Structure prediction request, 434 residues.
Amino acid sequence: MRTVSIFWRKAALVSVGAGVAAWLVLASAAGRMDGPATAQMQQAGEELFVHQWVANDSKAHGDGLGPVFNANSCAACHFQGGLGGGGDVAHNVVAYEVHPTIRDKKMHKGLVHAFAVNKEYAESHDLLSKAFPIIPGGDRVVGGCTVRFDDFNPVQLETTNSIALFGDGLIDRLSETAIRLNHARRVAKQLGREIGGDFEAAGAGRARTLPDGRLGRFGWKAQFATVKEFVAAACANELGLGNPLMEQAKPLSKDCECNEADLTKQEFRQLVAFVEAIPRPIEELPTNPTERAAAKHGKKLFTSVGCADCHTPDIGDVAGLYSDLMLHSLTSKLGDGYTHEIIVEVPLPGSHPKPDEWRTPPLWGVADSAPYFHDGSIGSLYDAILRHEGDALPVTKAFKSLPPTDQQAVVAFLRTLKAPPVAKNSADLIAANR
Ligand code: HEC
Ligand code: HEC
Prediction:
């Protein structure tokens, strides 16, 4: 068991090294195409961010909001702790992935939209199941052997809670080499510990390398490499706004002639410029001396129990991020000791995240971004810590073995990680957009 584990770590180290090398080649070929954003562009972008879109909106160059959508403004889902923050569970989003099968080898992805401008475009889980039905199992001959397949539901659903956009511009500009090297060091350190007989370290997780070779760093599944691409997808999928990078989402139910771009190239650049300029969160110690001492002590414990292994405080030139931007599984592996792999007809590429793999969320601003976890199912910081199993199990055990005052000190430290104060000034705009 242990030798196997070491073998895999070695293999992981080699693949991390290869990833870094491939990136160095790509990075030298890449360059930033857009000129610098001005304050005026950011201001215009903020107006687009808070604008409440309607169907056939006079501000749009196409059909405006929809045909299918989840809310009528960016601010409706990004408001907690200030404009650009996270969202409440009422604004959670349901995403689906349809896995490839022998009949349809393409992977389909999208959102099950909560709203439509017209009843005939309304979407539902039922509709999705009808469009992509369960494939009945049975005995099939594969490579000369008879293999028993279970019934296979190609549709995977995920409910996700809005992520705060504070400091996204810094994450966007963070060097990919720095992120990959941080991970390579983690894998090497873990291998060293395992060779020394210590198997009680948190799993190092893995990078999400996108099909074009870039590192995914935004979103719960690290599914996008840049703010610009995420914003394009958010316009198209959440609001139904076609833009220069992406067509607006089409209804599941019915074809529609609806390809018009709602945002011009310039408007789209303004919106991206605004999101990239949303200030980074801050660390603010309490003024009360006892609470202050507890938070400082908690910060030390955060590192000594191992939280900082995944919630890496600094990467490259970004200090206070508290994330390795890697995918991890926090699901318990105890069970009955066996992993039940579902036999699928067409396997996904190895780099595709498994259903239980999620990107380590940056903890900056975490005091103002409840509820927690990808689905927003956890209400308090303490409960969020206890929910860590899988890769994080050794760390959770170490946390649980701390005396209660020390556990509370870790939580007190997390409470110092706050939304930027500037963002709070937009309270009126936010209230109007709730
Ligand atoms: C209906 C709610 C909703 C609306 C409206 C919405 N978002 Fe989001 N946003 C989300 C959710 C949920 C996520 C996390 C999705 C995921 O990763 O699966 C997210 C994530 C993001 C991210 C990635 C943040 C990060 O650090 O990883 C960006 C950028 C973003 N949204 C920008 C926007 C912009 C710009 C708009 C308006 C065009 C917008 N969003 C509208 C719900 C929403
Ligand atoms: C093995 C890596 C790993 C370790 C170790 C780890 N975390 Fe996490 N943490 C994650 C991942 C991944 C998530 C998101 C999981 C999800 O959404 O399903 C997360 C989520 C969180 C959240 C919720 C954040 C949000 O925005 O929803 C908090 C708070 C948190 N961790 C704190 C801690 C603390 C404190 C420790 C140490 C006691 C710790 N973590 C140890 C990987 C880790």
Remarks:
- The first helix runs from residue 2 to 29.
- Residues 70-71, 74, 76-78, 87, 91, 93, 95, 160-163, 165, 168, 218-220, 227, 230-231, 234-235, 238-239, 271, 275 surround heme C (ligand 1) (CB under 6 Å).
- Residues 39-169+217-279 form one domain.
